[in-house]
Design a protein that fits this description.
The chain is α/β, with parallel strands linked by helices. It is built from 7 helices and 9 strands. It catalyses: N(1)-(5-phospho-beta-D-ribosyl)glycinamide + (6R)-10-formyltetrahydrofolate = N(2)-formyl-N(1)-(5-phospho-beta-D-ribosyl)glycinamide + (6S)-5,6,7,8-tetrahydrofolate + H(+).
Length: 222
């Protein structure tokens, strides 16, 4: 069964583009049915329109509080028969009401190896701490920020000459690889949320999703 997926964005939508590209494969278990933004001028809306995907802007500034915006968002998603939501640079903290309503069907990608470096400025913080590896995480969304059960992670090495910008560039490459893999897993039933934990089935092997530092260095630093 092909699942109808909505991507929520606030800006240019680079992870959105990787999901759209992956979903064009004949065997991909998801259809990107809607791209929705809380910013009417988000560049990603035009990118989605250009490839024939339905788009919608719901300006959060038009609502008196967070939950009223989220209820309008929920109604729009229901109107498009959406099964799963991918957050891709969506710069809004969602209300507990919305997160609980979409529990197990709402995922996000975060630019760190959670539970390390929740929140913002993750690359700067990783460099300041002198870590040897960094990366990104796809997780189910829960009311607590960046604390949801982990679906998949990708690792990149931190090298001596790294700056915040160079590290971010390598991490985003892995984000573009990891997010489509994780979406495939939740849409085909390989990964699901059960009693607050991610349950894997069908003999899934973590080595198929978790990139090693050696792989990342070989692929991205040459």
């Amino acid at each position: 069964m092909t699942r109808r997926v909505a991507i929520l964005i606030s800006g240019r939508g680079s992870n959105m583009a990787s999901l759209i590209e992956a979903a064009q494969a004949a065997d991909f278990p998801a259809e990107i049915a809607l791209v929705l933004s809380n910013r009417p001028d988000a560049e990603g809306l035009e990118r989605a329109k250009a490839v024939g995907i339905a788009t919608l802007a719901i300006d959060h500034k038009a609502f008196p509080d967070r939950e009223s915006f989220d209820r309008a968002l929920d109604a729009a998603l229901g109107g498009h028969d959406i099964a799963f939501i991918c957050l891709a640079g969506f710069m809004r903290v969602l209300s507990d009401w919305f997160v609980q309503r979409w529990a197990g069907r709402l995922v996000n990608i975060h630019p760190s190896l959670l539970p390390l470096y929740r929140g913002t400025r993750t690359h700067r913080r990783a460099l300041a701490d002198g870590v040897l590896v960094h990366g990104c995480t796809v997780h189910f969304v829960v009311p607590e920020l960046d604390a949801g059960p982990i679906i998949a992670q990708a690792v990149v090495p931190v090298v001596p000459a790294d700056t915040e910008e160079s590290l971010a560039t390598r991490v985003i490459v892995q984000e573009h690889r990891l997010y489509p893999q994780a979406l495939r897993m939740i849409c085909d039933g390989t990964a699901r949320l059960e009693n607050g934990r991610v349950v894997f089935s069908r003999g899934w092997d973590a080595s198929g999703t978790l990139y090693s530092p050696a792989d990342a260095e070989r692929n991205e630093l040459q």
